[in-house]
Amino acid sequence: xxxxxxxxxxxxxxxxxxxxxxxxxxxxxxxxxxxxxxxxxxxxxxxxxxxxxxxxxxxxxxxxxxxxxxxxxxxxxxxxxxxxxxxxxxxxxxxxxxxxxxxxxxxxxxxxxxxxxxxxxxxxxxxxxxxxxxxxxxxxxxxxxxxxxxxxxxxxxxxxxxxxxxxxxxxxxxxxxxxxxxxxxxxxxxxxxxxxxxxxxxxxxxxxxxxxxxxxxxxxxxxxxxxxxxxxxxxxxxxxxxxxxxxxxxxxxxxxxxxxxxxxxxxxxxxxxxxxxxxxxxxxxxxxxxxxxxxxxxxxxxxxxxxxxxxxxxxxxxxxxxxxxxxxxxxxxxxxxxxxxxxxxxxxxxxxxxxxxxxxxxxxxxxxxxxxxxxxxxxxxxxxxxxxxxxxxxxxxxxxxxxxxxxxxxxxxxxxxxxxxxxxxxxxxxxxxxxxxxxxxxxxxxxxxxxxxxxxxxxxxxxxx
Length: 465
What we know:
This protein has helices at residues 36-45, 63-72, 88-102, 119-133, 171-179, 194-204, 206-217, 230-233, 241-244, 271-277, 336-345; strands at 2-8, 55-59, 78-82, 107-112, 116-117, 138-143, 154-158, 161-166, 183-193, 220-221, 225-227, 256-261, 265-266, 286-294, 300-311, 316-321, 324-329, 356-359, 362-370, 373-380, 388-390, 394-402, 405-409, 412-416, 421-424, 430-433, 440-448, 457-460. By secondary structure, the chain is α+β, with helices and mostly antiparallel strands. The chain folds into three domains: 2-266, Spore Coat Polysaccharide Biosynthesis Protein SpsA, Chain A (Alpha-Beta Complex), CATH 3.90.550; 282-349, no CATH class; 356-460, Sandwich (Jelly Rolls), CATH 2.60.120.10. Strands 1, 2, 3, 4, 6, 7, 8, 9, 10, 11 and 12 form an eleven-stranded mixed β-sheet that branches. Strands 18-19-20-27-22-25 form a six-stranded antiparallel β-sheet, with no helix packed on it. A four-stranded mixed β-sheet has the order 14-15-16-17. Helix 3 packs across helix 6 and helix 6 crosses helix 7 (206-217). The longest helix is centred in the N-terminal third of the chain and has 15 residues, at 88-102. The chain starts with a strand and ends in a 5-residue tail after the last strand. 39% of the residues are buried. The model has no long low-confidence stretch (mean pLDDT 92).
């Protein structure tokens, strides 16, 4: 059996300001279609007719994003939540433990959640790799380079046998690799039996293996999520699959093969790669939504929220969001992470979340704020509800603008229709719910001296926050 494993724990720093810690790039759509995460899940589940439901390994913080996006594409999956980011080797080990419990020894198709690939070629190569993995081989997918790219690691291969791995090279070295037929980009996609992965991680990183195993054995599970023990998982070292295991395989007795993926592929690691790989609507420029361009070429403009005019620009990246704007030249797009690093040192909120923040019950958008007040637009999904809560430092006014609201306020329970409102006094116990099958939207006006999200005392919560 083929067991898809989707690793969805990345942060996508180089795609700020669209990708942020609270909403990283794998959960984004760059063309108004499925998100990268959704595409990865659907692509991996279509390889063989008898594919098992995918195992998703993601962060605790992103659990409801993953769950909602799986619901949107009507796909069942097992969700394993890391309490701390520990890179890909521990994440895959968790998935392998689950896979071995679930089936005798399934073959794992391990894939990142943020790539674009040619689906037909992908299915062809993975099917071939599946047959080789049945015999105990560890099979990696290499990409035939179409340029001397310095942003990827390289695999040196001789007739499907992997000779060695090479880290991201300098420009001169990348040019030499590009001229030689035996060097391939490392896609980060591979196929291996569950037992072979466990054998390999135990062989090369026994301490990591043991600590992950301890955290797994003490896991907590409910109807939706599986959580390794938080205290034990904190002790696990952070290592990538490549560094911990795959780069050591040529020196071992585990057969390591490489199959070439000779078609369109990108890890969408920068805005320049987005502009090269996402087909939008313009030959000379790539535009997302309302852009007026004069005497400009080679630009990528992402501006879904407002009209943007460009004049006399060449090879620029412009990304507009409600609370942050990025303008850079394409040849500097790999260095957007430097802006992110600076924001991190300054503890800027624009690094963490967007103005619109997603919650398990829907989302809220902070549309205005000032001294002693904040205004939010809040959407509650059908059948969803916020926690039963109170605030120590703020009062709230709610106005229903769409749908039907069910409100608990102290000992009172009421139903509000469109254009009706209510007031939640300071320290009043309250809850907002949507009892209907249509979305509920309200405008919330907060007043008080402290208007932070931390001023929430939850008394009851269906999402176990």
